[in-house]
Design a protein that fits this description.
By secondary structure, the protein is mainly beta. It has helices at residues 42-48, 261-266; strands at residues 5-7, 23-24, 37-38, 57-60, 80-86, 101-106, 125-130, 135-142, 148-155, 172-175, 181-183, 187-192, 222-228, 235-244, 269-272, 278-279, 285-291, 294-300. The protein has two helices and 18 strands.
Length: 301
Amino acid sequence: MKKTLLTLAAFAVGGTLSAQTTYNFFDPADCDENGFLWFDTKEKLDKYVGYPSRMQVKLLDGDYLVPGDYPGEDVAPETIKDASYVGYGTDGVKGGTGSKTGAIVLPVAGEDFGVLSAPHICGGGILLHLPDCAKVDFFVSAEQADVNLGLHPAEGNVPNRDLGGDNLILGGEFTSDSYGDKLPGVIFTGYFNDVEKLEDQDYGPVGNKHYFKIQSEKGVQRTIRLVNYMKKSPLYVHGIRVLQYTDNGNPFTPGSGVAGIEADENAPVEFFNMQGVKVSGEEPGLYIRRQGSKTTKVVVK
């Protein structure tokens, strides 16, 4: 599959939506006031993430784009869901400023083989089947500064194994070059907003340019595959916002999310050490305290 470089510009978290009425792809009761679904509890991960067709975010293991076997390659890495993972903040500290807890973990990519039809072995990925696409945003982090992701959209409700050929609306890479909160040589953490507006202007043979957006009209189905092209760090997908035009009974109204202060106050308190391992928090030391969606650093004396 040919890859082209797609670089997203930075947009505000709110973004600009179409004049059409939009609906939250996920249950608003599980989203924050901005419509983001955060993968910060096992309950939400089990409800929305998995392989069965009834789930809304499918997990894809690494290497799935490459046909056949390659000598010396291990079994394809497994994409997992982990509600206890403590991400890095914009200060480069695990559990620090702006960090998120809980994620879908996309494993690292393999080495290039220089095969024209499959020039890159992808890491793990996720797949979305949408009735139509009004808006797609991600919050991700990685333990390296330069994020390199693959995005492969298609028109229609397309199984992963058939995602290619005539139904592919093109696709390629997008990077963190001008995006999010990047600490040089350390980590990346932040939003990739307005992904639906991503355009590819250089795909195809010389002199045969194509232009596309992932965003669709009402009732025009979209399949979207997000994969990790990075070889050094897994990609941690902490949250996702998906809006559609098809009426599913969940009209999108900013500020109406339930996952807020009350939910945090009623959530159980958990402690993690600075390596992200869950502990009792009873021994003296520096810990990350999590309650609901809130994380703070605490010292136990």
